[in-house]
Amino acid sequence: MTDFKYSPILPKTRPDCEWVHLTSDYVKVVSMDGEQFLKVAPEALSVLSERAFKEISHFLRASHLGQLRAILDDSDASHNDHFVALEMLKNAVVAADQVLPMCQDTGTAIISGVRGDRVLVDGDDGEALARGVWQVYQTSNLRYSQVAPLTMFDEVNTATNLPAQIDLYAGKGMEYHFDFIQKGGGSANKTFLFQKTKAVLNPESLTQFIDETLRTLGTAACPPYHLAIVIGGTSAEANLKTVKAASTRGLDHLPEKGDGLGAAYRDREWEEIILGITRELGIGAQFGGKYFCHDVRVIRLPRHGASCPIGIGVSCSADRQAMAKITPEGLFLEKLEHDPSRFLPEVEMAEDDAVAVDLNQPMDQIRALLSQYPVKTRLKLTGTLIVARDSAHAKLLERLENEGSLPDYFKNHPVYYAGPAKTPEGLASGSFGPTTAGRMDSYVRQMQAAGGSMVMLAKGNRGREVREACKEYGGFYLGSIGGAAAKLALDAIRKVEVLEYPELGMEAVWRIEVENFPAFIIIDDKGNDFFNLG
């Protein structure tokens, strides 16, 4: 008989970090039956949750900002890598004023907690944590992105950004540990599970699989990415849970080899191999170069002999997470960088000339101008944009099918796929960056045939159907920088007004006025595509 040996797959502990002590209130040590316990008031969970989500809406880890600066200092990085990294650092400086959040998609609130067996909390921990989420979204310039079903096909925005995803686990000791994550839809949508077999577990097959898969990942989640790849797992859900933790650097303290009993380990050799693959893809920080990823985490898990799940996920340029803990000394939150300006270069980097585009001229003239330039050309857009995303496109398609035409505004102006965060008092706009273009792919052909969507602006790659439609109807797809929503709102957006469908909230049709709004030609009227992903 084999001896019993227990080896947890994943640790309940977290990596070390520098802590900020928030308060000593809400906690006290009590004695029961001669043993000590930490009694925590439920208000502590609400206070900690509110503070955490406020912080991660505006501040990043110093390590992440240092990686952006390293791109600027790399002479081998492309001009576009430099341009995107500099814009992201400037965006971090704007967000650090705590008015505009760093991204317009202020995400799903995700909380993971490990409560020690000597920690006592009255009431429902999840409710107390959710109250903190509710409070910060009600009182800050954050967007409500959560929709709740009424029927299979009818939904309503909850107007609170609840529900949050709250996962709580049991641990040992007299401390309560948390991970707070603000996960945008574009980043969450780049989480994938592949059910493979033992056949992939050799250097040649694994390298080929990783290379092919990363080429399809695209830029919709705003690279440079923190890439996480998890190989193995006792179930599909165990694999993907590990992907999430690894992408936030929550498993950086794992050992570097297996113990033969099933404990997870971190494979540093394959992290370097895969980082090298990402450098050679040519996608770079959105518009060409080598910085598709800042770094890679590769976690190896035990598996059932008949299966080999492989999970892939990213944390995007809005790298929003923080660890927290409650101890007998009080409430603590991971220290984030409150002075991102120290990562900016001392001298403004020189920029290549961008092509100025007057959006207030007739659409045919806009297209004639764009047609003179190749894909990857950098643009400065000034004039009127129509803003419409998922729900608005569904409404407009319904109108087209019922009435036979699209409204003039959709034919006379470029369309920007986006949805704003709340507008702060005294500013023209809330954070207002682009959303993922691919979700609107199925609308393009029918709308271009009706004279609409002739110039589209968003982020990420498009499918073959969009390239073919642009070639047939003379359309263009322009890419904007993902991950710089606060800077766009402050520097480039001059006026925002609801144009139609106000009942859709942030998904209404908007009319905005922009000045020197940065963009790149991604797909042209000849069918050329910068990403060329087939």
Quick summary:
The protein has 534 residues and is of the alpha/beta class.
- Please give the domain count: 3
Q: How would you name the oligomeric state of the polypeptide chains in this document?
A: single chain
Number of strands: 23
Low-pLDDT sequence parts = none
Descriptive notes:
The chain is an alpha/beta fold and 534 residues long. Helices cover 29% and strands 27% of the residues. A hairpin with a 5-residue loop joins strand 6 and strand 7. Helix 3 (79-95) packs across helix 14 (485-491) and helix 12 (441-449) packs parallel to helix 13 (464-473). It is globular.
Observed structural traits:
534 residues, fumarase, 3 domains, six-stranded mixed β-sheet, five-stranded mixed β-sheet, 14 helices, 27% strand, globular
Describe the SSE topology.
Layout: E1 19-23, E2 27-32, E3 35-40, H1 42-58, H2 62-72, H3 79-95, E4 108-116, E5 119-121, H4 125-139, E6 147-149, E7 155-157, E8 165-171, E9 176-183, H5 185-188, E10 192-196, H6 203-215, E11 225-233, H7 236-247, E12 265-266, H8 268-280, E13 293-303, E14 308-315, E15 321-327, E16 330-334, E17 355-358, H9 363-370, E18 378-387, H10 390-403, H11 408-412, E19 415-416, H12 441-449, E20 455-458, H13 464-473, E21 476-479, H14 485-491, E22 493-500, E23 509-523
Helix pairs in contact: 1-4, 2-3, 3-14, 6-8, 12-13
